[in-house]
Specification:
Nucleotidyltransferase, domain 5, 256 residues, alpha/beta, single chain
Length: 256
């Protein structure tokens, strides 16, 4: 039995089930193939997994969960994904059950937006956009991030406590040093398709090198701003030794 259950309410979501099962180990449940009601089918299997991805509206998910929850330390985590795969909502067990992490993982699979509402994350106003050359080291990333914060690496963690998410382009989703950086500082990594970056001219200074490789004028600034489009770019593109970093503060709204 896998730790993750994927519940498909309608056959229109079947393609989502295929995509998710290709990317992560999970058990897919198809309510539309059962003779029992979808709600009863879900409740029959609810306790069999530590985490659930429910492909449906949040309203239906709440009704399905009604009467099934005991406490946040034992209840399975739940992420809700709409059938268009636009939003992955961490609904239940954000921290304790890992729903926040799962929501980010699902969002990265579909290039969608994760929705995290737990207080700890909501109080972290900073978004870190990162671009880098291939095979940079963890030290190179740390040094550039420290430069962006105008700090030394030795005190970097204190500033990163204010960071909610790190964002980059899909070409860098498996970059070892970037993944290690996020793991070391316990930060989620949000991925954006290079096509999305190419459609947005959110850069203070374009890079011909990035244009040739990615097809966009930049990576770190547009990625950070796509996480928080109404936030303010407080640290424009900062470069050091093959790494580029930008910082957006979404507690400072730029307005309409």
């Amino acid at each position: 039995m896998t730790d993750i259950g994927v519940f498909l309410l309608r056959n229109q979501a079947e393609q989502i089930g295929h995509i998710v099962s290709d990317r992560i180990q999970c058990t897919v449940y198809k309510a539309y193939e059962q003779k029992t009601s979808a709600q009863e089918y879900f409740r029959l299997h609810y306790k069999e997994h530590r985490q659930w991805l429910m492909v449906m509206t949040t309203g239906i998910a709440v009704r399905f969960l009604d009467g099934q929850m005991d406490n946040k330390l034992e209840d399975p985590a739940v992420v809700v994904l709409d059938e268009a795969a636009r939003f992955a909502v961490s609904l239940l067990g954000g921290h304790e059950g890992g729903a926040n992490k799962l929501a980010n993982e699902i969002a990265n699979i579909f290039g969608s937006q994760s929705v995290i509402t737990t207080a700890t994350e909501s109080l972290k106003p900073l978004v870190l956009g990162v671009g880098c050359r291939k095979d940079v080291s963890l030290e190179q990333i740390e040094n550039c991030v420290a430069k962006a914060f105008q700090q030394t690496v030795s005190v970097l963690a204190s500033s990163l406590n204010k960071v909610r998410v790190v964002a980059t382009v899909d070409l860098k989703k498996n970059e070892p040093a970037l993944l290690l950086f996020c793991e070391k500082y316990d930060l989620p990594l949000q991925i954006f398709a290079k096509e999305s970056l190419g459609a947005r001219a959110w850069v203070s200074k374009s890079s011909q090198f990035v244009k040739e490789i990615v097809g966009a004028d930049g990576v770190c600034e547009p990625c950070a701003l796509m996480v928080s489009a109404r936030g303010q770019l407080i640290v424009p593109k900062t470069t050091l030794d093959g790494v580029a970093v930008a910082i957006v503060d979404d507690s400072i709204s730029t307005g309409d």
